């Protein structure tokens, strides 16, 4: 298969983790005789520094002509401490989601047996957790009208959802549930919000079309508790944009490190793959950033193009690295100084030689 | 002291847990020679069933003439499954908050040593956690305009904050930090939301007036993770209404049971005290509801009127009940069948006779 991949490393640890994901993809191409080409673009603070804006036209054009996108992370402390900055790195990411209409954000959360000691949760709580978020990504309060009063003393955000926005992510979520444990939980705040009432109404209608999927409805505050109290109860979690941001990041504690969670953002035409962690500025260029989330995002990219065998090989490589503790310090209790690129090298070696790879 | 207390037991387990809180208050009155009088009112589904609305005029009048309010819980499955119901139990609670202008919701989260085995979190993670939410309670998306398009296919919520709304809860939160560990964390989503940008701007201004308080700023998604990964880092958490609902309920997992968390809702003129748990319908009248959150809410009520010695006696009684496992089944690993009212009886006995009380 030929794939032209737009690579947007972004800020902070983005470039170093994405470099490992690209290494993995290159090895896969070699082993399976695919032709993967990579073209790099600027986004986030990296783009602001060079061009003055977070999502340059050139980058957007590159993404549109590519077959798919691999994205690192955006964000910079410079902007976090200036709530009034008009130009912000986040505009790069949010702009891509909107311009490419990447409405469905898929975030799998799978607990690894080998890492159960890294989770703050007791082992028996997290064993066998295997859930997956379907987060709506281009609607809601993120993209509603934002206004400030003239005197700067009043600010308003608007959260709108339409039937179409809800239906398209919902159908994908129901279909995913059909290929998994046939359970779907809608997360909303229908006892308070109008938009949540619309979600609940529409999901109730859609549920009839999927009689083999058991649907339940939970308020977001209850889910914030239940996700930790009893994560095994969940299979597919369908959730609107803002709540999805909060609850899916919370779910990272189950796994033991946010450096393990990958995501796919899918639209009708375009697709983008990114680790769910942020730019983690403080760690930049120190070789301590965990590349596994980026590498697993590359595996999700392969799955998107039905390259399941290839994706599975990457996942096996990751499993092996976790098992042997060829991992960055966030996960490692055995070895010091296993760096970002060392983990990437191990994954690369494993892909090239699944039978022989070991720590060397 | 003379206190006339409006008692609104509400729905589900509300009446049974509130009965225990009233018992505790009555014992306190006897021991300390106070005159506490109690006047009951309807709210929530209980009020809808009898009067057709969730917050009858009579109840509101009762609350306004009382010195303070003790509130149980509202909610009923009848309404949860009907997103289109025009009359809902929540209107009782939200109506009270708004009508009485109860803008500051205080939710302390303290990990009990004796209960560390009930938390899904490992013991070392939660030892010494002692944090407190200051949640804004009468603004934001809860009370903004809500609209549906005529065809019912589009819904909009509005989230507005004004300087005044932010300042009044913020000053209370900063003052609380001064009497505690001198740390305050603002939780927002200032990288995306206009209202969050306003929060961050105003808190930066106010922080200058409290040089002895160390302030930090975190995005809500990061807090959802950090609250579990490292809860000890927090002292006062200042948070807007919707995020506060989610994150404070999440915090209940640290303690081991949501049946332990009390809250105070304070305005310039009125005050209300309530457990943070809901109506928990399935448990109604089964004697399994944990009354401690309601009893600790009564202790917060006493503190509000500067009756610290009295409040401490209640807290000591609660500590003793936890230590001896005179607790409902959600917490108990030793005895079967210790009922809601049995826990209340123990607390009552302890208040009357702190030196002698034991299991009997
Ligand atoms: C960086 C930020 C705008 C983004 C979001 O809030 O969606 C991030 O937290 C995420 O979850 O991908
Ligand atoms: C019952 C509901 C409206 C309420 C809220 O969302 O504020 C509750 O969850 C709470 O936190 O007190």
UniProtKB/TrEMBL annotation, chains A, B:
GO terms for biological process: L-leucine biosynthetic process. It comes from the Bacteria. One of its GO terms (molecular function) is 3-isopropylmalate dehydrogenase activity. The keyword Manganese applies. Residues 4-347 form the Isopropylmalate dehydrogenase-like domain. Pfam families: Iso_dh. Its EC number is 1.1.1.85. GO terms for cellular component: cytosol. Keywords: Amino-acid biosynthesis, Branched-chain amino acid biosynthesis, Leucine biosynthesis, Magnesium, Manganese, Metal-binding, NAD, Oxidoreductase. InterPro entries: IsoPropMal-DH-like_dom (IPR024084), Isopropylmalate_DH (IPR004429). The keyword Metal-binding applies. It is an enzyme of class 1 (oxidoreductase). Its cofactor is Mg(2+); Mn(2+). Belongs to the isocitrate and isopropylmalate dehydrogenases family. LeuB type 1 subfamily. Homodimer. This is 3-isopropylmalate dehydrogenase. It comes from Pseudalgibacter alginicilyticus.
């Amino acid at each position: 298969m030929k794939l032209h991949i737009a690579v947007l490393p972004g800020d902070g640890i983005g470039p170093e983790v994405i470099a490992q994901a690209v290494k993995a993809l290159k090895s896969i191409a070699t082993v399976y005789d695919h032709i993967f080409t990579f073209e790099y673009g600027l986004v986030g603070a990296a783009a602001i520094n060079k061009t003055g804006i977070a999502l340059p036209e050139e980058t957007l054009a590159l993404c549109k002509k590519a077959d798919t996108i691999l994205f690192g992370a955006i964000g910079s402390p410079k902007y976090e401490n200036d709530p009034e900055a008009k130009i912000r790195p986040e505009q790069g990411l949010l702009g891509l989601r909107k311009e490419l209409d990447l409405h469905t954000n898929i975030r799998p959360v799978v607990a690894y047996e080998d890492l159960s000691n890294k989770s703050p949760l007791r082992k028996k709580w997290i064993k066998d957790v295997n859930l997956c978020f379907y987060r709506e990504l281009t609607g809601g309060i993120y993209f509603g009208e934002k206004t400030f009063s003239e005197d700067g003393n009043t600010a308003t955000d608007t959260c709108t959802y339409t039937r179409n926005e809800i239906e398209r992510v919902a159908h994908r979520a129901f279909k995913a549930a059909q290929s998994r444990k046939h359970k779907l939980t809608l997360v909303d705040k229908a006892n308070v919000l109008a938009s949540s009432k619309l979600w609940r109404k529409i999901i109730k209608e859609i549920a009839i079309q999927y009689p083999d999927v058991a649907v339940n409805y939970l308020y977001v505050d209850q889910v914030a508790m239940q996700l930790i109290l009893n994560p095994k109860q969940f299979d597919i979690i369908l959730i609107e944009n803002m709540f999805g941001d909060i609850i899916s990041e919370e779910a990272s504690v189950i796994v033991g490190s946010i450096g393990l969670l990958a995501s796919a953002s899918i639209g009708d035409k375009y697709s983008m793959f990114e680790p769910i962690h942020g730019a983690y500025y403080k760690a930049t260029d120190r070789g301590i950033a965990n590349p596994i989330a980026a590498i697993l995002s590359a595996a999700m990219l392969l799955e998107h193009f039905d390259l399941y065998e290839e994706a599975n090989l990457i996942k096996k490589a990751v499993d092996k690295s976790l098992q042997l503790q060829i991992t960055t310090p966030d996960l490692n209790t055995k070895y010091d100084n296993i760096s970002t690129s060392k983990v990437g090298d191990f994954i690369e070696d494993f892909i090239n030689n699944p039978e022989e790879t070991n720590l060397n």
